[in-house]
Write a structure and sequence with these properties.
By secondary structure, the chain is mostly beta strands. It is about 5% helix and about 50% strand. The strands form 2 sheets. Strands 1-2-3-6-7-8-9-4-5 form a 9-stranded antiparallel beta sheet, with no helix packed on it.
């Protein structure tokens, strides 16, 4: 037994040392890095991992075409801005986002997503803030390691640049002092026999995102807009579609589907949080669906007069318009 223990102890010590040495000497294949760009007291930062080619073909193979890519390796790439910026005409409020890209043979898109802290394979398209078209150029010499840079182009503007293999991708941005809301408040009004009907709602923009089935899930209750609840105010008893709606103030919800949309008129009063309570339903009614190749952006609700005794309610966004008629209750 004594002769058997000595080699076991010796082997254990050697294994312990073998495990320790590579940990100190191991080369990290995709090291983490950060780049910064300062504007006075504000800063834009990108934190990412830097994979290398290592003899591999990158675009079209390691990084497939037409699939969302983490724009790096390992953990998701993060962009942080301490100032409001505009990218491609789209406002980006100060904050932290994950940065993704969608490479294509015909062009690239850069994606900012509101989910943060995740591994780079955990991408949720429903949380996209926006997608931006990027400029793409071919480099004469291959760049071995993915490189992200932030370059100043003016006192309040800059350029996000991605370079790898023989491709350079750039997206300009600029500081904004008065950034417009992502989903501004709006209203639409119409009169029937002198009685006013008003709908107040928020107007979200597409911002390069897929709307139906992604931003707005199918077969689920939707607030029919963004931010605050969408409200209907009427000074007269109405007939909306086949539903009778007494004069008063209501909250509008909807359930989109591939075939159409169900409009929910809720007795929940306006000015309250937008959470839906099915116990307060006054009516549910189907809306007609019309698809079009002409995109509607931003989201729009309209009350369109159709003579003195009828109004058409239209809910439109992206390639879909849903509608029904409104008349005075007889």
């Amino acid at each position: 037994m004594r002769f058997w223990c000595v080699p076991v102890l010796l082997c254990s010590a050697l294994l312990w040392c073998a495990d320790d040495l590579p940990a100190q000497e191991r080369k990290i294949l995709s090291p983490r890095d950060s780049v910064f760009l300062n504007f006075d007291t504000s800063v834009v930062t990108v934190n990412y991992s830097r994979p290398s080619m290592r003899g591999r073909r990158i675009l079209g193979e390691l990084v497939p075409w037409d699939r969302v890519w983490r724009t790096g390796a390992n953990q998701a790439t993060h962009l942080r801005t301490t100032m409001d910026i505009t990218v491609g005409g789209v406002p980006v409020p100060r904050g932290t986002y994950t940065l993704w890209s969608l490479p294509s043979r015909t062009g690239w898109k850069i994606i900012l997503n509101k989910q943060t802290g995740q591994w780079g394979t955990q991408y949720d398209e429903r949380q996209d803030l926006a997608r931006f078209d990027a400029s793409v150029a071919t480099l004469p010499v291959a760049v071995e390691t993915l490189t992200v840079s932030l370059e100043a182009t003016g006192k309040s503007s800059g350029m996000l640049k991605l370079v790898w293999e023989q491709t350079a991708v750039t997206v300009p941005f600029e500081r904004t002092v008065r950034s417009r809301p992502l989903s501004p408040q709006d209203s639409t009004r119409a009169k029937l026999n002198g009685q006013q009907i008003t709908i107040r709602y928020s107007r979200p923009f597409m911002r390069g995102r897929t709307i139906w089935g992604v931003v707005v899930p199918m077969d689920s209750v939707w607030r029919t807009g963004a931010n605050l609840a969408t409200t209907l105010e009427t000074g007269a008893d109405l007939k909306i579609g086949t539903a009778v709606v007494p004069k008063g103030t209501y909250t509008l919800y909807s359930i989109p589907s591939d075939a159409g949309m169900t409009l929910i008129i809720s007795k929940k009063p306006g000015g309250t949080p937008p959470e839906y309570d099915p116990a307060l339903d006054l009516a549910r009614l189907p809306l007609r669906l019309q698809k079009s190749g002409n995109m509607v952006d931003p989201f729009t609700i309209s009350l369109v007069p159709a003579g003195s005794r009828q109004v058409t309610l239209k809910i439109a966004w992206a390639d879909r318009t849903y509608s029904t008629t409104i008349t005075l209750k007889k």
